[in-house]
Amino acid sequence: MNIAANPVIEANQTVYLKDYQKPSYLVDSIDLDIQVYDDHTQVNAKLVMQRQTAGNLVLLGRDLELKSISLNGKQLTENEYLLDAEQLVIQNAPDQVILETSVVIHPESNTQLEGLYQAAGDLFVTQNEPEGFRKITFYPDRPDVLSVFTTRVEADKKFPVLLANGNLIEAGEAGESRHYTIWQDPTKKPSYLFACVIGDLAVLKDRYTTSEGRDVALEIYAEEKDIPKCHIAMEALKHSMRWDEEHYGRPYDLDNYMIVATSAFNMGAMENKGLNIFNTSCVLADEEYTTDAAIMRVQSVIAHEYFHNWTGNRITCRDWFQLCLKEGLTVFRDQSFSEDLQSAAVQRIDDVAVLKAHQFPEDSGPLSHPPRPDHFVEINNFYTATVYEKGAEINRMMATLLGKEKFRLGTDEYFKRHDGQAVTVEDWIAALSAGSGVDLSAFLTWYNQPGTPKLEVHGRYDAGAQTYTLNFKQSLKSNAKYPNLKALPIPVALALFDQATGEQLVLNSEALFENSVQDGVYLFDQNEASIQFIGVETQPIVSLLRSFSAPVNLEFNYSDEELAFLLQYETNGFNQWQAAQTLLERILLNGHDAQIYLDAIQKTLPFVIAKDPLLASRLFDIPSEGYLGSRIDTDYNPIIVNEAREALLNTLARELGNFVKDTYLSLDPVAQKDFSQAMGVRSLKNIMLNFMARQGDVDVFDLAYEQYQNTSNMSERLGALKVLVWNDAPQAQDVLQDFYTRFKDEALSLDQWFMIQAAHPKATAETIAYLTSHVDYDLGVPNRIRSVSGGLNANPVNTWSFGVQHFIHLAQYLDEKNPIIGARLLQALSRWYTLAEPQRSQVKAKLEALKPQVKSKNVTETLNSMLSI
Ligand code: B3K
Ligand code: ZN
Predict the structure, then answer these.
(1) Coil/strand/helix, residue 615
(2) Ligand 1 pocket: which of 266, 333, 383 to mutate (most atoms <8 Å of CB)?
(3) Where is each Peptidase M1 alanyl aminopeptidase Ig-like fold domain found (predicted)?
(4) Tens of pLDDT along 141-167?
């Protein structure tokens, strides 16, 4: 039958938010039977469906071999349905439908890591968000179709673990050498949250009692040798469960919670209902094998996926345009959780650093889109920093404005109104407004508009009147695709300081939203406005956007001395760091004198080291070459940025003199009172070791070698390894070999070995060729690809020379094999248009030449957008 006459999904069709239509059928229940064999898997499905609106019965399916189909007990012949590469359509179906299908799929050869795939020899897992379920069976695979899932999983007994969502209701033999389990998930869920796991894994077990008294079995599945590395994740899980009860009143709702670790995973982790599937990098944590940063990440991702149980699973998205509804809110929740785990100021610093390094550049270039996009070709391309990180900032702004109590009233209302539903960003804002009693509808503009606003602020002191006035102006770069950009509500947290004493002043202004004694939030929601403080006795120094209260580019005409003042006296750790960053950026990009930064940091450091060594380490964050490059919009020459940064590092090393080695020798991670402090001390020691190498300290390589050998902590070992390898020390090859021997069976540690070599500042095309042809390099494992590509991309001079070919090759190779990762990696070249000539035209020509060679929606859409500037 000719399907073209009917509503079909074309391969590269753009989907628009404005075209949303309710599904014509809902699914009351689905019975799935998944039988795994070595060379194929058979999937039988029984869907009980009911008509909701007029229209065809549309089931989405991709790469499925249809073996049989019946409707209300009657087998359908080929001319009773329409089938193309994307869907199966039945016209004039009755209102009540029981549809049974049998299909064959091939997880054993699925390299895209979407749907059901064989992740390793003895492990099959699923990844169904956003549109993977249609690669398992025919189904209305969209988030607004919620159903009760019963799943039978059958496989050879060489796979002893057979898991699916919900409660285990039956298990038994299935003929000789085969067995099965049956699982029932009582909660209605969309298909993207379906999961099953078939494999040979060991398990770490624990229990948790919820605030409602429910006894929950907790299980983390991993390879036997990795089970000892699952304890931190297990503690983080219990901590998250408690945290969500205490901060949002949300207890867990099932009797079990399972997490499965796999090394073959496209992203960090997936919040499948009651059966999370995790990249090993986000679940295995152990000081001996993984870094401090990785340990923090494990805890935050565990929390993130757990928090999705309420924000994402119980309340889900109506359509994929609403992705930031669940992701932005859940990232905001996991960031708040992590602020309780380590220095809160540093957590905020790290989150903002990620936002500025990834989201700001994304939003200023050809891949810019609103946090809630209004169209897409491939939704997988929209799991972006804008959806996640900017989405989180929107929630943070509303939370800042409301304060703790009102925000909680708002979220309570959201959970009360929408539990069990698939909703929109509008529903979220409406519930938050109704619950808190504050109209937040203006914040919708943040979801619907792209771009980072520029916030210009001018301060004026009137000594006679003893007033201090701040004038605010906001603007957005014009955007042809979004001609009617509106003013945004921008909460500005601020403080005033006495210049002479460094003391914070009591704010006196009627314009402040939350006027606590010493801190205030001003909601700036016009194109221009001003506020005035009265009773200000001397010219103050203002600190704006404390804790980065809004995701904007602030312009305030600070003198370098005023920034040095804030670095020294601001009590908000984030703004202290921001003052250092602004000073450093001026030194690096505008040629300002480094001395003021040096003086301020030398005065401030001893106090900060004593109080918060982790924060102290961040005051040495010298903006990366990649970040600096992202601040340059035309005629960008990576070599000039590299030279400026090298020169500054050499100056700092010289001027800090003995402080460097004294600090290195005086700090002891073991003597610290908690993990956050120990992490800070390890970080500071590694920073000092790098400075010593720059100073040409005669002992530095011996000290680094000693640090490398005499520790069982990965952050210390890796810190020393970097100094030796990146400085081509005589011991470099020895320690690289030693590291390889120690960790060759530890994939996550070995990723670091690849990364360090790829990130060598003097790496060449030959270095990358050596690494990518290494016996342990595997293009089927995204973590390994990322370790080399990420390492290479740490040096923009390399990225923009031999790296261009590397990324283009990868995109081309992965276009078919794993297009999600191919499209993602290609984005390393997205700022090609800022390069100085002739590099700009050279890279552009290579990207143009790639166009006809790629077919996937993922890579094609990304490439088209990248070239659309
Ligand atoms: N929701 C998943 C992301 C799925 C990405 C699909 N390409 C992980 C998370 O955000 O928690
Ligand atoms: Zn998420």
Answers:
(1) helix
(2) 383
(3) 451-556
(4) 999 999 999 999 999 999 999 999 999
